[in-house]
Amino acid sequence: METNGQRAIHVPPGEGEMRWVLGELVTFKIGGEDAEGTFALAEDVVPPQGGPPPHRIPHADETFYVLEGELEFVVGERTLSATGGSVVYCPRGVLHGFRNVGTTPSRMVVIITPGGWRSSSTR
Predict the structure, then answer these.
(1) Cβ distance 104 to 94 under 8 Å?
(2) What is the CATH number for 35?
(3) Which residues contact 84 (CB under 8 A, 6 or more apart)?
(4) Does some domain include residue 105?
(5) Residue 86 confidence class, pLDDT cut points 50, 70, 90
(6) CA 8 → CA 30, 31, 35, 116, distances in Å?
(7) What is the pTM of this model?
């Protein structure tokens, strides 16, 4: 049942807004406007040795749920090893980055809170 303007969202496999971002294939499954600004969700495929340089996001927290592969995260002063099943949380404003240290592509879900990124995927 949909109430107060809320609606269910379904994004089938292989759908979503796909973009190449710094050499990574990012598929935006739920954009910020889809969830009334509460969050955004993307799937990120990172090639071996790929990943963004350290950066800060002042307006949003990021949670990374690693599905496959071997990633090394730098979050603030910490260096963390993350494999399938690992979760890494990075609060807004904290310097962070990651790199695929494995020999195969890594895949993870990224949740951005609050959601500010757009998605034009079909519902």
Answers:
(1) no
(2) 2.60.120.10
(3) 66, 67, 68, 69
(4) yes
(5) very high
(6) 11, 13, 9, 19
(7) 0.86
